[in-house]
Amino acid sequence: MENIKKLHPISVTIIIGTLFARMAMFMTIPFLAIYLTSVKGVSASFAGAIIGISSIVGLFGGFFGGYVSDRYGREKVMKISLLMWTFVFIGFATAESVWTFFLLNALNGLCRSFFEPSSRALLSQVTKQENKLLVFNLRYAAINVGAAIGPLVGLKIGASSSTTAFFVTSFVYFLYFILLVTLFSKYTIEKHGDASEHVTLRNAVNVLGNDRVFLFTVIGMILGVTGYSQFNSTIPQYLSQYKDGVQLFSYLIVFNAITVLVVQYPVSRIGKHYSALTSIMLGIGAVALGLFGFGLFTAVPMLFVSMFVLTVGEVMMFSMIEIFIDQISPQHMKGLYFGSMGFTAIGNAAGPWIGGLMLEHLGYGNHLLIFTLLALCTSIGFPVLLYVGRLMKVTKRHIEYSL
User: Any transmembrane segments, and where (predicted)?
Assistant: First the structure.
């Protein structure tokens, strides 16, 4: 508690805002694939494409969002993104056409790809080095507390059979917008030199072309995210074949979130005592093992065991990737680096589509083959990140700070 009191008010506000915003998000978006297939009669592959389009938009949105935040100000990008997000969720609540859902989820991905790198870069900017592990882990914990509460509320109000819950999501994001407008008018954020003059689109592009450590980190994370993305699309579609499958998936979401909160602190010690990169590598391996478990087992208790393994992998990957990127990125280009991690959305885009195609063409009964193939694809990320570690040693890559 004493450490939290030492944090900048903007950091605390973003963490609290993340908690309620993600709670509202998880109340609706995880049920969208089920709603589209069961109510709208959309095929599994097309539902996967609709879910995945937000990540496709994030491929380039994250890069430009990070660049714009470095160039013109992170506060402006965050405020505009939240206001736009408010209207996107109103659109979800009133949409009828399947293609409207496709367009809205694309805009959802655009808002996220601009807001997320800006908020993470701002957290890094206003936080002292010794508090960064705490801040990024609190942010990640806030996401998962929201994920624990949101699906239960969504299940109770019928989010899998109706879109009215999106009105609540819209209202929460509008309140977040008002809160940030008030906060930014009260606190002046210190600028780091003439960063805005140095960050041009040309040198931003050069960063991606010349920074091999960052490039292969992105490739490794794409493979890891491809595996983890099955939790949001392929796994719920597969579980919908079970009796009370929607309810089972809801419980798995809650179990996932609670597990994150329980294991996050001990798992973060791995990154602190070894390295952030080691944690990410082990996380990818655990996600692959968890996916294999979903294919191997059909008994509900073993599905929860598989979910536990996958969740540990999730924590090891996502609680440390922000720390690793913060370590290797220059101070005046953190928005660009965080934003360019949006290219990992290739995994979020391709994963649901690939999983949907497998379910459609191989059949739900071939779950062992489907999840084994998905696990093998994911596990390739381990040797890729092993190469990143070797590359850092060979090139004597400087890490800005250690944990």
Answer: 12-36, 42-68, 80-104, 165-184, 205-228, 248-267, 274-297, 303-324, 336-355, 367-388
Cite the DSSP H helix spans in 297-380.
300-328, 334-340, 345-362, 367-379
CA dihedral 182, 188, 190, 193 (to 10 degrees): 100
Rounded CA-CA distance 200/202 in Å is 5
CA 304 to chain CA mean position, Å: 22
Which of the four pLDDT bands, split at 50, 70 and 90, describes residue 384? very high
| 309 lies in the same domain as 358 | yes
Rounded to the nearest 10 degrees, how much is the dihedral formed by the CA atoms of 151, 174, 59, 33?
30
d(CA 400, CA 97): 49
Give the domain extent around 251.
Answer: 202-395
Tokens of 401: 């700070």
pLDDT single digits (tens) 71-116: 888 888 999 999 999 999 999 888 888 889 899 999 998 998 889 8
CB within 8 A of 359, min separation 6: which ones?
44, 234, 237, 238, 370
Closest CA to 63 of 358, 345, 380: 345
Q: Are residues 247 and 391 in the same domain?
A: yes
Q: What is the pTM of this model?
A: 0.77
Q: Which of 188, 211, 230 is the last residue of a domain?
A: 188
In a domain, 282, yes or no: yes
Q: How many domains does the chain have?
A: 2
